[in-house]
Fold:
Amino acid sequence: MRFPDLSEGLKADMPDLRGRLEANQPLAPFTWFRVGGPAQILFSPADESDLAYFLARLPREIPVTVIGLGSNLIVRDGGVPGVVIRLGAKGFGEIEMLPGDRLRAGAAVPDMKAARAAADAGLDGLAFLRGIPGSIGGALRMNAGAHGGETTDVLIEARGVDRSGAVRSFTHEEMGFSYRHSEAPEDVIFTSALLQGRPGEPDAIRAEMDRITAAREASQPIREKTGGSTFANPRPESAWKVIDAAGCRGLVLGDAQVSEMHCNFLINRGQASAADIEGLGEEVRRRVRAHSGVELRWEIRRIGIAG
Structure:
């Protein structure tokens, strides 16, 4: 599918734009599932001020969608209308150590890179980020967590740009964190986070990160085309347990499959479409509901239109 090209008109209206603006750009290469259609417009801002300039001048009727590392994302086969914004490492990938055992990280920094930088600096308390296959921006949006830690445990302040182009800061309290969720305004695109650690020994922190890595490799299909945990745990139960009990381990739809290794993971076996993967997830939800009455909630984001 190809969308009408809006890029030339937007460039004409934004003469001082420094970021890259591209029409009908494939999004599948940016997702771990490797599926989905194009973005009508893909915008990669140069930095925070460039992002603010763009949003302030973008017509309000054009929808905006933000993607990160694509680790927990299904892009539907028809693609994503409007503007898709992807923050890159060049403008949003800086990590800075600050006094008071604090770390500031750009929204495009992979969580595992933030954990590694903290360990090298002897900053404890952030090792859990090693187990999250996403970026700092995504962690802020969904209060990402793993191995006993969550973003809410370490966040001091988040910074972002709203749909009007205003740069805003949010305290921990203003983020309104709950399990795999934040109450921050949906139109805010996070650009950085200030995180609180504590003094630690680099070797001990690295050992903890190695333990997390080994645990992931032993229990999750991380070398497959997957999107991480598919459904949020229906507390106090674990999602994988209710999925397994409903007989869904190994279930197949098209070329998508429920992982045999960890049945809260869906896998693209090679030629799956986005419709295969999302349809399989919905079938899992239906079977779990019928078996145990549990309503599973998607943890993986699904964006765009059907093909």
In short: The CA atoms of residues 31 and 114 lie 21 Å apart. The chain has three domains: 7-90, 92-218, 221-303. The chain has a mean pLDDT of 96. The radius of gyration is 20 Å.
